[in-house]
Design brief:
mainly alpha, Serine Threonine Protein Phosphatase 5, Tetratricopeptide repeat
């Protein structure tokens, strides 16, 4: 499923995930299945469905607060909210992401990209 997603095949990624749903927060290539499904749904232009996937990642207490996909799910959640025109919730998700990364190197590409995206929402 990760390979399908990386190859740009969102539908294939979702089909590959079907059998993994009972294990949503187990690790598939080091990333939770729900996170990959969220990315695939974003790629397919289904931000409402992507939002649900990313929310499940951010709300899952079994993933540690510093689990990479949990931290990155906040920026993806922000993007999904913005795509559904829920700008305020999108901003809140970005702000949560920034709070988690407050001590990070400011030159990390994903952080710089998130700040650029957030600035456009102001």
């Amino acid at each position: 499923s990760v390979l399908e997603y990386k190859a740009g095949r969102g539908e294939g990624a979702l089909r590959a995930q079907d059998s993994l749903q009972p294990f949503d927060f187990g690790s598939v290539a080091g990333v939770s299945a729900a996170y990959i499904r969220g990315l695939a749904r974003q790629r397919l232009g289904k931000p409402e469905q992507a939002t649900k996937e990313f929310q499940s990642v951010t709300e899952h207490e079994g993933l540690g607060a510093t689990a990479p996909e949990r931290m990155l799910a906040y920026i993806q959640l922000g993007r999904s909210y913005v795509a559904t025109r829920n700008i305020e919730r999108g901003k809140a998700a970005y702000l949560h992401f920034f709070a988690l990364w407050r001590d990070a190197d400011p030159d990390i590409p994903i952080l710089k990209q998130a700040k650029t995206e957030y600035a456009k929402l102001q």
